[in-house]
Design brief:
Helix content: 25-40%
Distance between the termini: 122 Å
Number of strands: 31
Shape: elongated
Strand content: 25-35%
Largest sheet: 6 strands, antiparallel
Structural class: alpha+beta
Oligomer: single chain
Amino acid sequence: MIGSCGTARMARDTGGGLGSDAAVGADVVAGAEVAATAVLDSRGVVVRWSPAAEQLLGHPAAQVLGRPATELLARPEPAAAAAARRALRGAPEVRSAVVTVRCGDGRLLELVLWAYPSTGPESPGAAPHWVVLAVEAAQMRRWEGDRAVMEGLFSQSPVGLLVTDTELRCVRRNVALERMTGTPTEERLGKRIGVALPGLSAEAIEAQMQQVLDTGVPTMDFVHRGRTVADPEHEHVWSTSTFRLQDPAGAVLGLCHAVIDVTASYRAQERRALLNEASLRIGTTLDVMRTAQELAEVAVPRLADTVTVDLLDTVVEGEAPRPGPVEDSVTLRRAAFRSTWRGHSRAAYAVGELSRFASSSPQARCMADLDARLVARLDFTADWLRDDARRIVGIRAAGAHSLMVVPLAARNVLMGVATFYRWQQPDPFDDEDLTLSAELASRAAVCIDNARRYTRESAASLALQRRLLPSELPELHAVEVAAHYRPAGAESDVGGDWFDVIPLSGARVALVVGDVPGHGIHASATMGRLRTAVNTLADLDVPPDELLTHLDDLVVRLAEEDGSSGSSPTGGTVTGTTCLYAVYDPVERRCTLASAGHYPPAVVHPDGTVEFPRLPAGPPLGLGGLPFETAELDLTDGTVLALFTNGLLLGRDRDIDVGLQALRRSLSHPDRPLEQICDQVAATLLPLRPPDDVALLVARTHALGTDRVASWDLAAAPAVVVDARSLAARKLTEWGLEEISFIAELVVSELVTNAIRYGLPPIRLRLIRGTNLICEVSDSSSTSPRLRRAGADDEGGRGLFLVAQLTQRWGTRYTPNGKTIWTELAPPHAM
């Protein structure tokens, strides 16, 4: 690029005789890299030839001076030569032409010529000479394109341009920048940004410009925000790029600062980012109140300065509201509040408090027609604010100036309303903000509705489980028991873990724990079915291994009902259920156990030693066709058994060994009350919200000594019946149970008679004084007695009927050596 230096050089090349027209020509070709000059006399003979002409055309001055300039034209060009001669003979005015000349090396070159009339100082009054400027045509076209671009940038480009000097003062700016700022260019010339545009972050902008000026490294996409005279009501966002300006010699002339208004795209990007964040942060839990709070936390401060969420009270409780809008008198509950205010809360209603809106308020109207409301400028004289004195105090105190009200509706069901306030951000809400808030509310409404449905299902599951689990543990002589149950997650997140204590014949007791995989109603219902099955099988006095076999068959059938995979449409699985069944006999002081894929119990001896006995490995229920085996443990009186599900060991650490060691330490003092032991175990091993359901059953054994048990072997002869009655009567007198002696003797008489008549020897009579008086008669026959109604003429068949009428319970259990018929009589104080 040739500036004033290039013009001066042309003046020297032409002898300094340039007039005003020549200056115009010099300005025209100022952008050319090489401009050749020559001086022709009035006849067109070359009288001066510049070094630039030698460089451009390759003809030394000695070859050209004194010769007609037309000889340099390419041959044959008679028409062009004639035109050139006519031009030189014409009026003294600037002439231009495009010609083709032959260079010194023989190549042809297209030139653009300008001829300027000039009277040289050496011949005053003589015919005018001609100063000819020549520029390569291709270079001239490039320069004209560059000049058109520059003119377009400063007159038509939508990109704002600012040219500064080295002091960052405005030298030139284009029309687009003038429109952006609203400040006329003449008021900006010679001023820095901070002086001319005080609404911008001048320090940051000028620091960035100074860095480019010092280093020469351009910057791109430097974003800043502010307000201008052109639009003082709204904040704008601009993206700027800056580069340094230098002359051909490398001297720094200033900066060029390009400015693009990216407000619309920036806000769109912010909206997309906020919606993406909302999809991750809203609905992280299935808690209605927490989901409402997540909506408020996402919107503050990026969209609003304060957000409140009010839900229908029925939604908070998990109930389904009526479809469609609601009347304006509906009661709501404040579910969430979030504000940028760091001092004392300015909420009109606290979270959890009941609230109402005036019938003319935007909230009430929003709930009436399910349409969002935008109040760009709050009018504190509006009727709805005057009718709500409590709310207007908070709004005035916060200095709110703009609000939006959006319904929280999903599946055509209104669940509440969200209100967005601005008091710190100066810009009022606009239609784009309303659209964004509606999208946030729509996403939150779906999550709130899901949480509401979950709350309702969890409440139903919890009610179902409370009815299925034992409401009270029985008081037994053989064991004293205590239990602890905690569902996974929250108190309403019920599952399929269960425990049970089942009284058996002969003062024995069955202790049961089980774990159905999954959570919710399906797991609870499955647990109830299995618990009922265990109770039924226990009443039949089925041995532990046989009981688990029958239970395994039931689980297989349940899995087939739910589908071949064993999964239920409502969640959870049947296959994979585990169970531990233990029977403690206080007379024998022996515990018989069988496990279906379950952890063994912790056995805590009276001295505090804790062990986990090795049980035969049994498969989980539902696999079918695999055997179960039993194990027997001889227990000292006062031994504590702790039966538990796997959630107890995984409550705080996923390492089973760590859980077992913690359980061992918690159980090492068995002399404490069982409730304290349960509390200690739960506090040590369980967090507030364990990852899985937990069932813990703790039992302390109490043996029945010889002073409470009496047994006799009897001969299989009818005369023995009288002896049996006498033996029983004497023992009852010894125990102080004379009041039930007559009934007991009658029962013993009937049972022994049946054993002699229908059974096989040996025959054995046993009396046990436990919570009830237990009378047992055993024989080696496996024939089961049958209760029947005897006819009026029948001589027999009434014995078992009388036994059933006179006792609390009776039944038959089978042993490897035969059967035992047993009865229970309540002691006198219980009758």
